[in-house]
Structure formats: structure tokens, C-alpha cells
Design brief:
alpha+beta, 3-stranded antiparallel beta sheet, 6 helices
Length: about 200
């Protein structure tokens, strides 16, 4: 992935994304993968197939220079963000205010999971007042020397009336199982979820 550059990373790189308006999640086993390459309709989770049409989103990246010293910019087709700078250094060293593919993946996973958890809570009759979800995506060097996304950890904290920790954990696990980004990442990496109610200590 990094070519033969002498500055190639050899250690884990972690990227954090905080998405307000969503919660913290429990440990979840990796779900059994189901290969569904038939029609787009049959490949979608039921919860999404009933209300969400086929969706496509686009982004554009420009890059100049080699891997070690070059730099790039990321733009969304919607105009939501434009020319976000990134580089090898922002991925594996000090970000210095620049983003990275791993940070953007962490943000996407946290955002998707927050919506999924909000849906599970609302479906149980306990819509959340507030959710915070933090995602940590880990890029690491694997046995063959290449670099790969190896894990995404979700921590969710929920402000919800009339719900206990056991119920939250059950719904948090269901939310992860139904989250499209969890399914995408689980194809080659580990996803863990830890959910707590607001006011609980992390050690509880």
C-alpha cells in the first residue's frame, strides 16, 4: 500500500470521530456474513429496504506528488465539504488539522450507527433525547507487510428515559447488526460496540 518509501508506517494508527446526537454501544460479535449479489433489493437489510431507495453518493480526490511527500484534497459532490487536505503524514503521524481516510471512515461509521441505534430505541418506544457515538478506526500493518483496516470500535452514550442498561445493550447490538457500515467493515475487520446510559461511569 505504501510502496517502498522509507517513511512507510509500521505501527497502528488510530482515528477518532465524534458524532453528537447519537449513543454508546456494547460488545457485539461479528455477524455471520451473507453473500447477496442478486438484486439490489434483496441485498439490502429489511429495515432499510422498506423505507430507503437505492442510494449513491460521490466524492472526488485530487493528489499531487509521491506518497511520502505528496498531498491530496477531498471534496464532496454535495458541497458539504471541499478540498479537505490529507497526506501520508496526516494518516500515520501528527494530523496537524488535516483529515485522513481513516478519520472519514470513523465519522461515517459513527454517523450510520447513531441513526441505527436511534431507530432501534424509537422502535422500542424509548426514543433517545440525546446520543453520543465515538468511533475509533484502526489501521495496522498485517502479517504480509501490507496495511489494512483491522478494527472499528464504537462507544455510545445515550440519554434515554425509562430504559435499563440490559435493554440498551440489547438494542445497541441490534443496531450494530443492522448498520450498513458495520456490515461493510466486518467483511475484513472487527467491530466492537459498547453502550452506556448517560450518568453511568465507564467502568460500570
Amino acid at each position: 500500500m505504501w510502496g517502498s518509501s522509507s517513511s512507510a508506517p509500521t505501527r497502528i494508527e488510530r482515528c477518532r470521530a465524534s458524532v453528537r446526537t447519537w449513543p454508546v454501544v456494547p460488545r457485539v460479535r461479528r455477524s455471520t456474513r451473507v453473500s447477496a449479489r442478486s438484486s439490489p433489493q434483496s441485498a439490502r437489510p429489511d429495515a432499510y429496504a422498506s423505507s430507503v431507495p437505492r442510494v449513491q453518493r460521490e466524492a472526488t480526490v485530487t493528489w499531487e506528488g509521491n506518497v511520502a511527500r505528496g498531498s491530496g484534497a477531498i471534496s464532496a459532490a454535495t458541497g458539504a465539504f471541499e478540498e479537505l487536505p490529507y497526506s501520508l503524514a496526516s494518516r500515520v503521524e501528527t494530523p496537524d488539522g488535516k483529515t485522513s481516510p481513516e478519520e472519514l471512515l470513523a465519522a461515517a461509521h459513527a454517523a450510520c450507527y447513531a441513526m441505527s441505534l436511534a431507530g432501534e430505541l424509537a422502535g422500542a418506544g424509548t426514543a433517545p433525547d440525546h446520543l453520543d457515538v465515538h468511533a475509533t478506526v484502526t489501521l495496522d500493518q498485517v502479517e504480509d507487510g501490507s496495511h489494512r483496516i483491522v478494527a472499528s470500535e464504537l462507544l455510545a452514550r445515550a440519554r434515554v428515559k425509562e430504559i435499563d442498561a440490559d435493554t440498551l445493550n440489547r438494542l445497541a447490538a441490534s443496531a450494530s447488526a443492522g448498520c450498513p457500515f458495520t456490515k461493510l467493515i466486518e467483511a475484513s475487520a472487527t467491530v466492537t460496540v459498547n453502550a452506556t446510559l448517560e450518568g453511568e461511569s465507564d467502568g460500570d
